[in-house]
Amino acid sequence: MRLASIAVLGGGPGGLYAARLLKKSHPDAVVTVYEQGVPDQTFGFGVGLASRTQRNLRQADEASLNAIVEQSHPHEMSMKVGDSQVRLAHGELLAIGRATLLSVLQRFAREAGVELRFGERVTVADVDADLIVAADGINSVTRTELADEFGPHIAQGEGLYLWCGTDFALESAVFTPVTTEHGTFVAHAYPYADDRSTFLIETDERTWQRAGFDVSTEATPASESDQVSLDYLQAAFSETLQGHRLIGNRTKWTTFRTIRCDSWHTRNIVLLGDAAHTAHYSIGSGTKLAMEDAIVLDRALLEHDDLESAFDTYEAERRPAVDHLQAIAERSMVWWDNFPERLAMPVEQLMIAYMTRAGKVSLERFAESASGLVTAGLAAYGECGVDDVPASGEVVEWALSRPTAGRSDRLADADLRDADGTALVEIADRPWSAAMRRLIAQPPAASTVWLTGADDRESTLDRLDVGEALRRRTGAVVVVDVPEEFRADAAAGAVSERVDLVSFTS
């Protein structure tokens, strides 16, 4: 289709990347990016780029991806609990400073012929363009002003977190908890430059309040950082920080908002990135989603002669991928919200629980890619020596065959279902729903809780998540119905201590 003018609202990575792609595809169009901030001032620290994201960006625009990679910082992953630490090689995992990423994308947008206009607060009512791309972020003015047309739904998370940084490069990405007199704080930290690392720290509401951070959060102006929290956390994580300081950038505690919209477009306006959807930081990057949105939007506009058809194609292609990632991300968010409850597990077993927490990575696949780590974790789970753990292709059946609490394996006897003391509970809601929170807060008084429900995979994973919460809070034996085709999920659930026993259904 012929587009004479394109306006992009928002000069973040998604908006800049979309502007470059659209200008290259529509060279005669006037493409303008409107950003209310200024080029040398930005929020955030590092941005992670997984290998799959890099492949997608390379296929869409190899030149800009090469420039991004050139200024990125490679690293591995690790988890440290107390004095125990495990490392995990993670292929082509990269991170780049957000300011550096923006600088690269600004340069490539200009080279393509995009006009960048900074320091202007512009809404859809202020611009006259054939196409308006609203990439105006999680607090999207466009989505808010046109809420009746986009139909946004916003779900608030329970845990609190803050973004900060430090002035040295960690040896690798690290997940590490620290328990203080007020409760447990968990850091998600990773290096993104030779002298910088991101430090994201999260905690539960009760710990946050006991530490007085509800007061410091309220007292911190929007333009400043919560220095009370930064000073406290700098002392708490002093070992990981190796004597370095925590750096704020309008750093305040907040809760994560998962955003969904009934529609991503209306008239000649289309949402992109966080304006349309968000996914929890523990599983997916908003930057990744926004840039991949841009790729699909650009392709859809080339394929069609009218905006409505192009927008429909854009949504049809992107929604399944985004919905899938959001489901994984919500599951991961709940796992991290309850992370301190798992600290008694050996760190190798805990790393297995982390990698398989959302159903994205199977136990077998993880065993293939990190055999030494997984073998140690499985040995801890099976209470045996590492020599007794089989090869990766046999770990599922081996995990299900391990004895527990006087039983010879992890398979529930059929007569247990109807036995005295067994409560049969149907799980029909997501683990993070109000109904499931009530169930977990007021569980059935039973020695055995048997969870049943629908036979699709998401429902199976939901039962395993609810099962973990119940077994940790009640001490009851938890049994979960699992369709035969999801034996691998059952094994991962057992190894991760989400369930005691499983019952396979046909």
UniProtKB/TrEMBL annotation:
Give the top-rank taxon of the lineage listed in the UniProt record for this protein.
Answer: Bacteria
Pfam family membership, one: FAD_binding_3
Q: Keywords of this protein's UniProt record, alphabetized?
A: NAD, Oxidoreductase
Asked if the keyword Oxidoreductase belongs to this entry, the reply reads: yes
What are the protein's GO molecular function terms?
FAD binding; oxidoreductase activity
Q: Where is the FAD-binding domain?
A: 126-324
Q: Which SUPFAM superfamilies match?
A: FAD/NAD(P)-binding domain (SSF51905)
- Per its record, how is this protein called by name? FAD-binding domain-containing protein
- Give the originating organism: Gordonia spumicola
